[in-house]
Specification:
246 residues; alpha/beta; Rossmann fold; 7-stranded parallel sheet; 7 strands; 15% strand; globular
Length: 246
C-alpha cells in the first residue's frame, strides 16, 4: 500500500505502460483515473481495477487539447476529492527519417508527446497545490537522451526531458516534484517488437539480453509517485537494460 490515500491520473492508460502503471498503482492503494483517447479500452482497464477491489475512473482525454485537460482534472477532483500524482505517459511514434518527415507529422508528434506534457503539468499544478503537494512523472525515452530512433520522436522526448527539469526547479518550493523516466526497449503495442523474431533481434542489442516489460517501468513510476522519493525532483530514471551505459 505504498500509495494509500493518493489519487493518480495516468494518461495513455488504456494499454502498454500506462495500463501497467494504472493496475500497479491501484494495487498499491491509489485511486486511479485511467485516461486515454481509446475510450473503450480505458473503461476496460478501469473495470478490471474495480472488479479487483480497487477504485478507478475512466475518462476520455486528448492530451493535446487544453479543454480536455481542464475537464479531466476537474472530474478527478470531483470524484476523488484531490489529485496527488500525474503520470504523463501518453505518446505516439511515427517512423520516418528526417527528410521523410512532413511538417504535419512533426506537429502531430510534438502535439502529443511534448505539448501534452506541458498542458498536463499546467492543468495539474493548481489541483496539487490544493492537495498540499504532489508528484508529476513524465515518461520520456532514452531517445530523449541519445540518438536512438527517429528525429521527430527523439526531439519530442528530448523536450520532455528538459521541460521536466525546468518544472522541477520552478515548483520544488511548493512540494510538487517533477521527474522523468527514460525507458529503452519495452514490449508494448507501440513497439516494433510485434513477434518473437523481432523481439529477439532487439534483445540482442541490449546488454541484459532482453526487452523490458511494461511492469518494470511501472515500478519505477511507483517509486517516484510514492513518498519514498520525497527528496527526488528533476531526476532522470533510466530503465533500459544497460543500453545507454555502453
Amino acid at each position: 500500500m505504498r500509495l494509500a490515500g493518493k489519487v493518480a491520473l495516468i494518461t495513455g492508460a488504456a494499454r502498454g505502460m500506462g495500463a501497467a502503471e494504472a493496475r500497479l498503482f491501484a494495487r498499491e492503494g491509489a485511486k486511479v483515473v485511467v485516461s486515454d483517447v481509446l475510450e473503450d479500452e480505458a473503461r476496460a482497464v478501469a473495470s478490471e481495477i474495480n472488479d479487483s477491489g480497487g477504485e478507478a475512473l475512466a475518462l476520455a482525454l486528448d492530451v493535446s487539447k487544453d479543454d480536455d485537460w481542464r475537464r479531466v482534472v476537474a472530474e478527478a477532483e470531483a470524484r476523488f476529492g484531490k489529485l496527488n500524482v500525474l503520470v504523463n505517459n501518453a505518446g505516439i511514434i511515427e517512423r520516418h527519417s528526417l527528410e521523410e518527415t512532413s511538417e504535419e507529422t512533426w506537429d502531430r508528434i510534438m502535439a502529443v508527446n511534448a505539448k501534452g506534457v506541458f498542458l498536463g503539468t499546467k492543468a495539474a499544478l493548481p489541483a496539487m497545490r490544493r492537495a498540499g503537494g504532489g508528484s508529476i512523472i513524465n515518461i520520456s525515452s532514452i531517445s530523449g537522451m541519445v540518438s536512438v530512433g527517429y528525429p521527430a520522436y527523439n526531439a519530442s522526448k528530448g523536450a520532455v526531458r528538459v521541460f521536466t527539469k525546468s518544472a522541477a526547479v520552478e515548483y520544488a518550493g511548493e512540494g510538487i516534484r517533477v521527474n522523468s523516466i527514460h525507458p529503452g526497449a519495452i514490449w508494448t503495442p507501440m513497439s516494433l517488437y510485434k513477434n518473437e523474431r523481432t523481439r529477439e533481434e532487439r534483445a540482442a542489442t541490449v546488454p541484459m539480453g532482453r526487452v523490458g516489460d511494461p511492469e518494470e517501468v511501472a515500478y519505477g513510476a511507483l517509486f517516484l509517485a510514492s513518498d519514498e522519493s520525497s527528496y527526488v525532483t528533476g531526476s532522470e530514471m533510466v530503465i533500459d537494460g544497460g543500453v545507454t551505459a555502453e
